[in-house]
């Protein structure tokens, strides 16, 4: 048997694997294709540029971007702590950080209410001392999205920090650079791909957040109604609008995948 024939035989997928693989592929693709098939193409432009869609889209992008900024400010130092600091119980700390990944978002929203609500552990003091009430506000949307999305950033950045060569940081320290200068000029550039990937994933997760948002921030058009909430609301009154909103979110998800193609969906050479 020639080398080419052996390679072709190795690349041939057994039927026992090919059939469920094709079924699984159809299971993932057909529902998405159904959105395009059932889309109201005749009125797509009118609905796409309607005030309600534009309002929900703008609110979603602004809140997701602000939530991502919060995650960057808090998540990058947290990732550095998990990757570099020699702390007792670091494994337990890492597990706690990743809990929102597996926690039902609605439970996350309830937890936020119990802590930051007007009668919450912290929220009652914010309300009494500063007159700040976070639930059912746009700020509440940002907090709910940040709570759910931050683990994506932390995990990505921590992995990049663990894979970075520490010798460059040691060399910078030997030359007299401060820790903050080394972090800004040496560490961050070395983990830039992981940081960018984590930021994009964090933004995408924040954009698609539903459960924690509707529980903690409610569903008030123009104030807390983001795109996922608008889809839920439109599905009961105007299914066509719900499909249009879903297509917008689908396109944004595709853009995220394309932006991360070299890291997540490229074929190894």
UniProtKB/TrEMBL annotation:
User: ABC transmembrane type-1 domain spans which residues?
Assistant: 57-260
Main subcellular localization, coarse class?
A: membrane
Membrane topology per the entry is:
Multi-pass membrane protein
Transmembrane parts of this sequence: 12-37, 57-83, 95-116, 128-157, 186-206, 241-260
Cell location: Cell membrane
Pull one GO CC term from this UniProt entry.
plasma membrane
What GO molecular function annotation could you give as one example from this UniProt entry? molybdate ion transmembrane transporter activity
What Gene3D superfamilies does the entry give?
MetI-like
Pfam families xref list: BPD_transp_1
Which keywords describe this protein according to UniProt?
Cell membrane, Membrane, Molybdenum, Transmembrane, Transmembrane helix, Transport
Q: Which InterPro entries match?
A: MetI-like, MetI-like_sf, ModB_ABC, NifC_ABC_porter
**Family per UniProt?**
Belongs to the binding-protein-dependent transport system permease family. CysTW subfamily.
Q: What does this protein do?
A: Part of the binding-protein-dependent transport system for molybdenum; probably responsible for the translocation of the substrate across the membrane.
Record's protein name: Molybdenum transport system permease
State the organism named in the record: Actinophytocola xinjiangensis
């Amino acid at each position: 048997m020639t080398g080419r024939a052996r390679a072709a035989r190795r690349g041939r997928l057994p039927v026992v694997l090919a059939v469920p693989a094709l079924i699984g592929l159809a299971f993932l693709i057909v529902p998405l294709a159904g959105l395009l098939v059932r889309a109201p193409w005749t009125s797509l432009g009118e609905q796409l540029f309607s005030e309600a869609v534009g309002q929900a889209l703008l609110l979603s992008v602004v809140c997701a971007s602000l939530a991502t900024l919060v995650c960057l400010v808090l998540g990058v130092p947290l990732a550095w702590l998990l990757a570099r600091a020699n702390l007792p119980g670091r494994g337990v700390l890492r597990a706690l950080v990743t809990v929102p990944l597996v926690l039902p978002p609605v439970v996350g929203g309830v937890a936020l209410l119990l802590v930051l609500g007007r009668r919450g552990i912290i929220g009652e003091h914010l309300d009494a001392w500063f007159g700040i009430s976070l639930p059912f506000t746009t700020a509440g949307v940002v907090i709910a999205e940040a709570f759910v999305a931050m683990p994506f950033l932390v995990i990505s950045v921590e992995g990049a920090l663990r894979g970075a060569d520490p010798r460059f940081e040691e060399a910078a320290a030997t030359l007299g650079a401060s820790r903050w200068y080394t972090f800004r000029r040496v560490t961050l550039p070395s983990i830039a791909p992981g940081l960018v990937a984590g930021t994009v994933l964090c933004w995408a997760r924040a954009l698609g957040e539903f459960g924690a948002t509707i529980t903690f921030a409610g569903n008030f058009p123009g104030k807390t109604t983001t795109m996922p909430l608008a889809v839920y609301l439109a599905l009961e009154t105007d299914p066509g609008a719900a499909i249009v909103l879903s297509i917008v979110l689908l396109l944004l998800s595709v853009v995220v995948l394309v932006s991360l193609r070299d890291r997540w969906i490229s074929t190894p050479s």
